[in-house]
Queue: 4 jobs
Job 1
Amino acid sequence: ETICSLVSLQLLEASVGTSVLKMSMYRNAVWFVKGLREYTKSGYEAAAKHFAPADLDVNLTGRSFIITGANSGIGKATAQEIANRGGTVHMVCRNKGRAEAAKDEIMERSKNQNVHVHIVDMSSARQVWEFAQNFSQNNTVHVLINNAGCMVNQRELTEEGLEKNFATNTLGTYILTTALIPALKKVEDPRVVTVSSGGMLTQRLNVEDLQFEKGTFDGTMAYAQNKRQQVILTERWAAQHKEIHFSSMHPGWADTPAVQSSMPSFHAKMQSRLRTEAMGADTLVWLAVSPAAIKQPSGLFFQDRKSVSTHLPMASTRSTPQDEEKLLAALEELALKFKP
Ligand SMILES: *[C@@H]1O[C@H](CO)[C@@H](O)[C@H](O)[C@H]1NC(C)=O
Ligand SMILES: *[C@@H]1O[C@H](CO)[C@@H](O)[C@H](O)[C@H]1NC(C)=O
Ligand SMILES: *[C@@H]1O[C@H](CO)[C@@H](O)[C@H](O)[C@H]1NC(C)=O
């Protein structure tokens, strides 16, 4: 079965059992124990005791937000929070019917008329380019929220011949962000927030096989590898573009439609311990709107409003600068290939 939905968090539930490498078993086990303590609803509740409620007390009138995958789950919860505070919301979604329905709901609840839908398939490099170029012609953007994600459980190619998880999670995010950087540099307090996942802690960057052509394909592993790449891109962009505040984040394990459909057994087993969508969205909203967030250095990875390590202890997941350069070069080359 092929599933490609707007995913906001993932768990590598199968990999503990199927992994053949000792190191990856070690990483998965350490990570799962950490997840049970921190990524659950009780983990959120413990962390939230230290949140400053006034951090989200902001009037967003006049600020413009692009949110990919905004019609369900954490993306939709985030769009709602921003609309509630008067921000202009640009929802970037694949399915027109679902997007319009979510938009109507958000407008009705927030009484905010500045909510717009843009139909874009984030797995299509050409469509992402076209959207970014169209958008920056006539609109301003203050904050880009890269939330759309995809976990396809079988190796599948897009119409453009790219592996689908990579095309959506990594290349789509790369093209949208880099194409909007000139527009972001023109505004006050520009930010880019990317929804990664704690699952990336189990992966070391593998730049030799970006589209999973070698070995047995494992969708959860591919997803986590893409999430690792997003964290590295965030660090690199932060170093390159000082005028923009970049961050990546982990929403925790939340009860979203995407988790329910792409990981039904995990969802069933964990249901009572999963976070609500609003809990999953909290740090994303905080990074996108609060004055407190931009006091943090640019380029970091956040969980529950705090920057956290991008590596598990002794997990050998650090990449070399050379590999990171290779990743950037490969993405740039692919991106240019599809530029209209
Ligand atoms: C937010 O700011 C706008 C103009 O800057 C103002 O019209 C509006 O009343 C403010 N909203 C709230 C809830 O304070
Ligand atoms: C970009 O704009 C052109 C011209 O207005 C339109 O035909 C096209 O559908 C737009 N593409 C996207 C992805 O928004
Ligand atoms: C941008 O606005 C101009 C003038 O209103 C219009 O001609 C053009 O088609 C718009 N571009 C897009 C991509 O919507």
Job 2
Amino acid sequence: MDFSSEPPHSRLLRVQGREPFNAEPPSSSLVNHHITPVELVYNRNHGPVRILDEHSHSIQIQDEIHAKNMTISLPELKSLPRASVVAAHQCAGNRRNEMGKIKPVTGTGWDDGVVANCRWDGVRLRDVLVHVGVPYAEDLHVCFASHAAPCQDDKYYGASIPMKRAYALESDVLLAYEMNEEPIPSDHGGPLRVVVPGVVGARWVKWVDTLTISAHESPNAYQQRDYKVLPPNVDSIEAAGPVWARYPPLMTLPLNSVVATVDHDLQHGRLVVKGYATPSDEGNITVVDVSTDDGKTWVPARIVYQEGKWSWTLWEVELFDVQLHGVVLSRATDASGNVQNRECEWNFRGVAYNAWGRREW
Ligand SMILES: Nc1nc2c(c(=O)[nH]1)N[C@H]1C(S)=C(S)[C@@H](COP(=O)(O)O)O[C@H]1N2
Ligand SMILES: [Mo]
């Protein structure tokens, strides 16, 4: 893999790996912004970051069902109706280090900053498919691929989603060309990337150059392996090897919340607690509660930011008469009545960790 032509990366991130470049901000800086500034957006790569030319970029659309191939240029895509969405995107490995305390896991050692809440502008995938004449059919898949660079586990990066997610009424699946109202920077997949609100970051293919309409899920390694929740008895690479195919790719992440900062005003026995919460695809967060007595009693936090169906939620709460030291827990509830659980079952890849948020003061 050739890393010699990467763009300069944000210097506000804690680097977990240089080649490929993987870095996250501290969650304490994330909660200061409703919309995450680009410089604070985590960067997750399985291969080199490439700088592509937006003027010559195009995508191939391969309809395997009707044996049709089409090419659509970026300017032509931009002539379709613009759509925008504010959505949290999150790596499946967010909070992996916490899961690793239960029992060792494999993968990049992420804390709780591998999440960002950005505005994305682009075209709806559904509009693109209608534009090029791909008819809807139940049970098909839309596969996304980027051949910009080879990756650690495959020759290209790929993922797929069921076609019904793209065609759902009010579908917010986009081929995005702007992030926070600017062209998407190379680190985040510019000039064109996939945005699938409510679904793990791994399916948000950066530098996308190919769409394939297929009867099958993407054959790419990152769809077939890696981003899956394996059962707890699978606890080594050897044990995982033969069983990957039995488990579905991780798509929606579960409801989550994290305590990002705790400021203790010693003199007045007062705590100011701030954090974020992220939705699953079953409706946005309705309540975030905090507890300082190990979950016996809960106090509702004030929701200070949320917009639309897919954004994260920022929350804040003041607590009085607190002890000198303690632990504050957070727990989110969503519009469908799902409540975040105290614990999260361990899995070998350390993905989808969503136990109650927890921070000491
Ligand atoms: N082409 C390509 N797309 C990719 C990846 C990658 O390595 N290559 N990583 C995926 C993963 S695992 C995540 S979590 C997100 C990260 O997006 P970001 O770096 O813009 O935050 O992009 C996804 N899309
Ligand atoms: Mo990821």
Job 3
Amino acid sequence: MTPFIARPMTNAATSLGRIRDRIAHAESIARRDAGATTLIAVSKTHDAAAIQPLIDAGQRVFGENRVQEAQAKWPALQALTPGIELHLVGQLQSNKAEDAVRLFDAIHSVDRPSLVAALARAIDKVGRAPACFVQVDIGDEPQKGGCALSDLPALLAEAQAAGLPVAGLMCVPPAGLDAAPYFALTAKLARDNGLAGLSMGMSDDFEAAVTLGATHVRVGSALFGPRA
Ligand SMILES: *Cc1c(COP(=O)(O)O)cnc(C)c1O
């Protein structure tokens, strides 16, 4: 690549600027500190050619929902640009826990005791510990993953006892409904449990999530365009 020829701003880079502005505006409406929200660019299904322009535009935090897909794409991209932070936002099978712990800096889908145990073993074996978000089944939709609200205190206690670095809670509200009440409830659950991290908000609702205290928003299609 010839460094002195300016490349045209790609759509991805333009979208990144717009999303960052909208996050900043939502932070200011809610009187939150500028930069209090981390934007996770969810790059699932998109290839390196689609991702690299975002890296070139300064984005360093990315999300994937499948371990194998991330293993195939990210090591090469990370070799080109140091300092990239990878978040697993999709459901995780216990037999992939070790691979996930090797590759990811954060795991947003801790939702059951068997996965807590598998992650604790993997962290011990690999010698690195990704930040863990406990996913809450906030809309009572078990097919989406997430632990039932009634199981949350016990799961948090297990995760902490197993030594997982529990950063906060994560939720995916029901599609087609106003997400704000679900974000507010997730924020309350985090507060009640003394957790600072809140992973909530996607392309269609990240501003509401930011005003309700999200520390991490997970934005895919608004950055990359629709997925195939
Ligand atoms: C795909 C995905 C996202 C991003 O969704 P968009 O609507 O494309 O922004 C966020 N969170 C999770 C858990 C996802 O699977």
Job 4
Amino acid sequence: MEVSQLKKAMFIIQIVLASLFTSSNSIMTSDDPSSLPGNFLFGTASSSYQFEGAYKSDGKGLNNWDVFAHEPGNIIDGSTGDIAVDHYHRYLEDIRLMESLGVNSYRFSISWARILPKGRFAEINMAGIHYYNRLINSLLQKGIQPFVTLTHFDIPQELEDRYGGWLSPKSQEDFGYFADICFRYFGDRVKYWVTFNEPNIQATLAYRWGEFPPARCSAPFGNCTLGDSEMEPFIVAHNMILSHATAVNIYRTNYQKEQGGIIGIVIHAAWFEPISDSLADELAAERAVSFFMSWFLDPIIFGKYPAEMIEILGSILPEFSRSDQEKLKKGLDFIGINHYTSYYVQDCILSICEPGKGITKTEGYYKQSSEKNGVPIGQPTDLEWLNVYPQGMEYMVTYVKERYNNTPMFITENGYGEKDDLKLKDEKPLEDLKRVEYMASHLSALLSAVRKGADVRGYFAWSLLDNFEWQFGYTERFGLHHVNFTTLKRTPKLSASWYKQFIAEHSIRTITDPDHPNLQQIY
Ligand SMILES: *[C@@H]1O[C@H](CO)[C@@H](O)[C@H](O)[C@H]1NC(C)=O
Ligand SMILES: *[C@@H]1O[C@H](CO)[C@@H](O)[C@H](O)[C@H]1NC(C)=O
């Protein structure tokens, strides 16, 4: 950005912030930076399929997303992640962007098929190991901690073809094998490990709605050639939970003591607000959280599925054997929360609901909606599912804190998306004021939860760059940096300048905090 543009941008930011922090809304007042712990991670997030490209380079095998995106009709704009934003070749440039933001961490995922082109059924691809070594070393040279996800929706296609991927318990062995290799090769330098990204989204989008590979579902949920929307999400979830446990056990037993890192899982955590103050709707909102999020976290932390799920689903829900329960005991070190938005929830057990998302038995008998009596829960955005409701961040973090005994948390994704509408092309895509407002209000809500005692240790903005947004291809932009998808040129948006300033203010004031003088060594 030119100097004059930057000045203008900063002026706009100040106005936005002034209006935010003098708002009468109580959660937005008094932003006290000293409430953040000294080693708080500020970063941006990404994932291998959405960023890397190089889909056949240097010995990488095909994964489920390579195959899915190449089938006509699966991606809205007919695009693929073959090139994506070419992070594989441009990671040094991207690290320079991170350096300029002043972040101290970077969340990325490892492409499983780049390391193991055919899972455990063939050799390790050393060129893949070398790529991640270069990435990790380059980050560390700039003081940026790698925060690494083992699988972010992509698995080697070989595993789908051989035994149906996550539908088979054999996936547990493959995931453990892959995790072991990652700990062995990278764990001397990687201190933050995530097993799965959003298994709750993956299980439902791939096996209930048929929108993610392997695109399995049944009527009335979707129109797929194969699948069972009422059974399969629970089978794959069960295998993912046990795969998580397998990887955690390997880490705990063979690596953690020596390497000194921590390991957790990332869950998609929307907040659910009862649509009325009736007891039935309040219970429905609780149920929604259970069926959506605690579905994964309860087994990993408590060794069993949420009571509401057991009661409603009965024999549909797989059971944990004695040895599974033993394996689950080692749980996790932290919970990663991807939070973007909130919904209203209406009970559908005592009352008859109109058709809509959530109303069936296997979804948990609640109707999910973004509005009440025609009024949206928060400012609408270009994206139908995304309304701006910053309070939801505080409520969700507080809920997780209470349900899971204040297990350490990281906000592993939070961000604002815009449609890449042709009509809007001339409308200054770099002046993303709405993204700045979104981030400022959500960080403010997060700080409020932290001041009230939530053990939150980091925040990752989704995303460093505009990128391949799954079934929406390149039609949605979430980046702090604009990417021209033809030239792949990266240009900072206003939100990048804003985030940089936010990080600088919150880090500097931590250093000068007289009550915690020893925090200086961290920054
Ligand atoms: C389901 O998909 C098939 C094959 O793609 C198509 O012919 C049919 O019209 C679809 N049915 C519905 C109800 O959309
Ligand atoms: C991308 O760059 C090309 C070449 O400079 C330009 O013609 C095009 O308008 C750019 N597209 C966007 C979306 O900025």
